[in-house]
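Key idea: predict the complex, not the pieces.
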Amino acid sequence: MTTGLNLRKLPLARIDASTSVAPSCHSEGGDGGVVGAPTVALVGAPNVGKSTLFNALTGARVTMGNWPGTTVEVAKGTWRIRWDGKTCDCQECTCEDTSHERDLTVIDLPGAYSLDPESPDEALTRDLMDDPSQAPDLTVVLVDAAHLARSLYLVAQLRERPLRVIVAVSMLDIAASQGIELDTYALAESIGVPVVALDPRRRSGLVNLAKAVDVALAGPAPARRPRTIDADEVAAVGPELAGEDERFGWVEAAAAAGTTGSGEGRISWSDKVDRIVTAPVLGPLIFLGVMWLVFQLTTTVAAPLQEVLGDFFAGPVSDSARWLVGAIGLGGTWVEGLLVDGLIAGVGMLLTFVPLMTMMFLLLALLEDSGYLARAAVVTDRLMRSIGLPGRAFLPLIVGFGCNVPAIAATRILGGARQRILTALLVPFTSCTARLTVYVLIATTFFGSYAGTVVFAMYVISIVLVVLVGLALRRTLWRTMGAEPLLIDLPPYQLPTARLTATVTWVRVKGFLKTASGIIVTTVCLVWLFQAIPAHGGEFGKVPVVDSVYGVAAQAITPVFEPTGFASWQTTSALAVGFVAKEGVISSWAQTYALDDPSGTGPSALGDKIKIDFAASSGGHTLPAVWAFLIFLLAYTPCVATLAAQRREIGLRWTIFGVALQLSVAWTLAVLTFQIGRMFW
Amino acid sequence: MALLSAPLSVPLTLVEVPDAMRARLASLGLRPGAQLTLAQRTTGGGRLVALGSSRLALGETLLRQLRVVVA
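Result:
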């Protein structure tokens, strides 16, 4: 077996060993590539390691974003190739010193099996390749050595276009373990473009790829592959089928030339594991175990860290800032308020999510990289299909019960954009732990020894809401979605590599911080600002919440809640604070009641005040009003961090749609609960 | 026979695929003439299909639409 760069067709006679490939450490055009640099597109089927190769080439200095005019997410980055020393065209001629650095812009296109678009993701790849003004200068097709024939269909289609193509073969170790050996020389001869063997997970073979790319960019695009389509076949089955058959013929010939051994009939350890994890009864049990572990790790490991960080910002950091502001003579002024209650509170809130997000992304990367996620999708497929979602959507929805923010981020494991949007719209209806604290306060205040049952009921209602809203959206907005039958390609299990897992986790956490920081910090600062501006005269920054613009606005919207039975301004302003973060609901209540009557302290005093308020606002129908409040709390917008995550994953338009959906569902259900409930209680 | 009613662990030849999914199936190697074996039943009534070195999970709906003969 030969591996490495195929040089037969390349002008290089010798590879300079001193050539190195280094992830770019800067780029003139930002991390989204260098302006004017040649563009290299990475294409290939899902799960061949395309994004891993992209990360290895660019060092994760990338920008993620939707391709203009589409919902398809594309990553762009800079790949810096360094050439040290001399490169000769041949041994007789003079060697030129070709030491130079070269920056290339790399685009990681979505996974595609072919250029026949089955989804917006695949359509984007086809459109780019067919449009000379947008086509990349060179296309690297990453193919899977263990499934060569399948991977080469895309190569066959690309070779019918006037494009520079390089085939990079990965998964040679898996192919070898299945008895398949690859001959890169023979394969290159057969398909007419250079072939490079590499392993993106271990970052080997990248130098050879860099060489091949540099050489190919210097030359013209190779001639298109000749096609001989049988006229009789065209007459018999039509031009499309006949064309496809010709391609499969070409693919089979190339695969036969490039590999030995078929890999058939071998039962690998991967098969043995599959017998257990996809089995009818054991499979779901194992899946539940894995989900429990994900849930436990995010809550028991990350949540305490989140608390520590929260305390750190609310304690030492805020205290030091107050001291500092006091030391320069601005203590007690609006400057202190803006700094401590605005900026530090906002940045603190953002950073408290970092442990949670890191843990979530780490676990996702491990599940994805190991190959288990594809099995989990098989196991949960039937259940999720009932609400029009693929099995994979189960994971974000489960995670949502811990925290909605990483759950929204987890929707990226879904292949289709529409499924991603639908799942991201459903996640806010999963009851996160921040809402739990409010349930517990209300339930213990109003339901005494039945508090536990009431809290449990909230979780049941949450699940029912997810299913009902899912069904409603599917029957209205996405009537055409979800009919595709289950067809999943199961990648072989692999041991996740530490480097890859760390890189993927870092890129995702960085992306979250970048997108969420603006929204969270701005919102917290705005809330502080509105609470600092007096509505009817008074000094800026020294006004009770009730007399601030914020308090007055909360009172103004209170009539909207009249039919829900909980229309007191203290409750509505607590809900308004809860829009920013549910953690703020209880403290807002405590704050507004304390301002009314500074002598009342402690949870029981708070409970009593809430009781009096609910009794007054509901006209004596307290319990229906409490249920209406609990349901409203469950269904309306969880927090601004969730909105920030949604903005990142599904865009601004759908995020706004989501907010409108949550508010209308929450209000309608609250009104129904109170109006029906008060007929009986 | 439909792939759904085919026995497990027996070499099969695919003879017919639904027109609507022809391209998608072909890109995964499921073309008429392909040799495959049903490796096992999965949760939800599906099957795990061994096709060369690939493993594909197919749902019940699709299994009904694919026709095979024992090779």
